[in-house]
Amino acid sequence: MFYYFNGEVTLLESNLAVIDCGGVGYACRTSSYTLSRLHVGERARLYTYCSIREDAFDIYGFSTREELRNFELLLGVTGVGAKAALAILSSTTPDRFALAIFSQDEKALTAAPGVGKKLAQRILLELKDKLGGAAPAEGGISLPAGDVPAASGSALALAQAALAELGYRPQEITAALRSFEPEGMKTEEIVRQCLRAMVMR
């Protein structure tokens, strides 16, 4: 129904952001991650998901399309409702969530309030194929000739696959990797450095 709202932030509360678009305030339920990027009085764009039921019409808004996609993926998991999905997204970031699925990191999900071991295992099981599997195929993601190589199953390969799943193109990933030396770094550290390099470009 709504793809995104683009307007002034007029109110921020726990898991709630109100965006004024043309004099109408839209209440968007959201995550702590998105809230941390919003400021009252400033303009913002939230990508939305609408939940329409017989007794309710709820709008969920997120600062990035990646986080919105993660929310939609979580809602597709058996036993995961909007409340649990927001709790998970509030306890992590979009890139760390993707890494948790790739590496089948159960603890990263159970860190969210109300998410137990069984639910975390179900999320990992049902999303591992939708996010491309726990580890990339031989050689990591496909990169043009001459780009940074990655050994199968290595931290670098997992980082490349996670960044690709977040929507970054191979050329962008390669350029970011050339800005630092990833050897010996953990997957999460490589992803963080790449994201920082992309922002600085």
UniProtKB/TrEMBL annotation:
Function description: The RuvA-RuvB-RuvC complex processes Holliday junction (HJ) DNA during genetic recombination and DNA repair, while the RuvA-RuvB complex plays an important role in the rescue of blocked DNA replication forks via replication fork reversal (RFR). RuvA specifically binds to HJ cruciform DNA, conferring on it an open structure. The RuvB hexamer acts as an ATP-dependent pump, pulling dsDNA into and through the RuvAB complex. HJ branch migration allows RuvC to scan DNA until it finds its consensus sequence, where it cleaves and resolves the cruciform DNA.
Domain of life: Bacteria
Subcellular location: Cytoplasm
Family: Belongs to the RuvA family.
Ranges where the record places region Domain III: 152-201
InterPro entries (alphabetical): DNA_helicase_Holl-junc_RuvA_I (IPR013849), Hlx-hairpin-Hlx_DNA-bd_motif (IPR003583), NA-bd_OB-fold (IPR012340), RuvA (IPR000085), RuvA_2-like (IPR010994), RuvA_C (IPR011114), RuvA_C_sf (IPR036267)
Domain statement: Has three domains with a flexible linker between the domains II and III and assumes an 'L' shape. Domain III is highly mobile and contacts RuvB.
HAMAP family (alphabetical): DNA_HJ_migration_RuvA
Domain annotation Helix-hairpin-helix DNA-binding motif class: ranges: 72-91, 107-126
Annotated GO MF terms: DNA helicase activity; hydrolase activity
Keywords, sorted A to Z: Cytoplasm, DNA damage, DNA recombination, DNA repair, DNA-binding, Hydrolase
Protein name: Holliday junction branch migration complex subunit RuvA
Gene name of the encoded protein: ruvA
Subunit structure of this chain's protein: Homotetramer. Forms an RuvA(8)-RuvB(12)-Holliday junction (HJ) complex. HJ DNA is sandwiched between 2 RuvA tetramers; dsDNA enters through RuvA and exits via RuvB. An RuvB hexamer assembles on each DNA strand where it exits the tetramer. Each RuvB hexamer is contacted by two RuvA subunits (via domain III) on 2 adjacent RuvB subunits; this complex drives branch migration. In the full resolvosome a probable DNA-RuvA(4)-RuvB(12)-RuvC(2) complex forms which resolves the HJ.
SUPFAM superfamilies, A to Z: DNA helicase RuvA subunit, C-terminal domain, Nucleic acid-binding proteins, RuvA domain 2-like
